[in-house]
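Sec-independent protein translocase protein TatB, Aquincola agrisoli. Tokens?
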Amino acid sequence: MIDFGFDKIALIGAVALIVIGPERLPKVARTVGHFVGKAQRYVAEVKAEVNRSIELEELKKMKTQFEDAARNVEQTVHSEMSQHTSDLERDWADASTAGHAPAVGSDPLATPVPEYRHPHKNWRLKRGAVPQWYKQRNGIRSKAQSGAARVARHRPKRAS
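Tokens:
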């Protein structure tokens, strides 16, 4: 940017004092400072925008590189899988034609699948996690009672 030394600033201030006058110089200096601040903020915003666009371009380049690498990996895996599949099928066909074929109806890889049985669980009858004996020993209620029933239960018995 422009290089202002102390001597140049002093010269500009002396000229401004003579031309503008001592009454209006503080107001003009404030206005000039305001405009210089706006200009600095504008330059900072432009720099930040340029930096963001450069970073965005770098990220786009990185994204394309990763996509290319992922595509290459996918193609490699696909080709390897197809090669191994064809090798396995060829070996299976060789084993079948060589007289080592299994008997008809018996597949050595097939295991019998058990028939599905419903567990017959009733979710409404689930018990709480606290055992019944613990509830009874510590006086924890296990059955709901109305307020009147609770009062009647704890009312002292009358002697007749």
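The longest helix spans residues 25-97.
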